[in-house]
Amino acid sequence: MAPGRNEDCWCGSKRKYKHCHHDIDNAPDDQKYETAQRVYSTNWTVTARKHSENGVYDWLASQLVSRAPKRILDIGCGSGHGLVAMREVLGNDVRIVAVDENRACLDSARDTLHRQGVAAQVVHRMTVSQTPTGFNHVAGPLSFDADSACTLIESDICNDPFLTSALLDSGQFDAVTIWLTGVHMLRQFNVNVMENDINSDATHRLYVQNAAYELADAVLHPGGILQVGDRGQTPDTPLLEADLLQAHSHQASVTSLEVKSLAHCPYNEPGQRRTPMVFTPGSAGLIPDKLELAIISVVSEKPQ
Ligand SMILES: C[S@@+](CC[C@H](N)C(=O)[O-])C[C@H]1O[C@@H](n2cnc3c(N)ncnc32)[C@H](O)[C@@H]1O
Questions:
Q1: Contact at 8 Å (CB) between 213 and 257?
Q2: What is the DSSP string of 238-302?
Q3: Does residue 244 carry a pLDDT above 70?
Q4: Keyword set for this entry (predicted)?
Q5: 3-state SS of the chain: helix, strand, coil percent to 5?
Q6: How far is 276 from 145, CA to CA, in rounded Å?
Q7: Which of 155, 183, 209, 215 has most ligand 1 atoms within 8 Å of CB, for mutation?
Q8: What strands lie across the sheet with 293-301, from one edge to the other?
Q9: What percent of the chain has pLDDT over 90?
Q10: For a substitution probing ligand 1, which of 181, 186, 209, 297 has the most ligand atoms within 8 Å of its CB?
């Protein structure tokens, strides 16, 4: 029997059922995937608002200041609170192209930017269909106005045959960012995810970040940077720092990118469980008994 709306969800997330699987369970089969995206977007927007108030996005954007990027590709923009911080910290003349596989997140990002007086161009181009075992989420051809202050593109960077060439047609980028990777509750039934044996939050995070390293390698100009922003154990000992750098060097090893620097700041989990943290272990995969949490920024550079 389904839990009551205010009881814990059956999935073990510790969210109330009404904030987790309620709407998905009650949606018609052919609308479940989009419903899961919408539920995720609503929950993430609540969490992101807290991160914004706590200065998480300002800190992540501040790590880019020394590079003064003028053209940024943001992967997985979520509710757009990070994009607002980029503009505030790096200047309103920065041009941003942001991608997200979740249409509801893109629409939320458009609204977040609109409240700041920024009119973003939104490109919807993906369709969802059911298969006997899951869902197909397929992207159509892509073209967009490269001069827009902010363009929000619907794209799954792990499965988009049109993305790289369309981005390159618009020009190379000074920086690529991917902050706080996470995904909606039915992503595990995406046929591409299933074909790649992605069956946990941790392997999904690597799946997306690996694709981000490869995309960054393709679209950055020489000297440009990729910044991965994550939540994890504070890397405050030489061992933990080396472990994390090694994990990212391993991800970068199939590209020309070179891992250059690691920085961190204290992180407090927002006092609600709408989108709880997915822990990011280093290469040794160790999960310590007591977590001292940090926001972590790892910057890699495309050689000149
Ligand atoms: C945890 S949210 C973080 C959003 C934003 N970067 C922030 O820090 O507030 C992760 C976002 O990445 C998006 N995402 C996950 N996998 C993706 C993929 N393969 N391609 C594009 N976007 C993806 C999700 O839809 C979600 O909006």
A1: yes
A2: HHHHHHHHHHHHHHHTTSS-EEEEEEEEE----SS-SSPPPP---TT----SS--EEEEEEEEE-
A3: yes
A4: Methyltransferase, S-adenosyl-L-methionine, Transferase
A5: 40, 25, 40
A6: 36
A7: 183
A8: 121-123, 150-154, 95-100, 71-75, 173-179, 220-233, 293-301, 258-266
A9: 87
A10: 181
Ligand 1: residues with CB < 6 A are: 44, 48, 75-78, 81-82, 99-102, 105, 155-158, 179-183, 208
Span 101-151, pLDDT tens digits: 999 999 999 999 999 999 999 999 999 999 999 999 999 999 999 999 999
Place of tokens 């440009």: 224
Lowest mean pLDDT among 66-80, 189-203, 208-222: 189-203
What confidence tens digit (pLDDT) does each residue in 13-43 have?
889 999 999 999 999 999 999 999 999 999 9
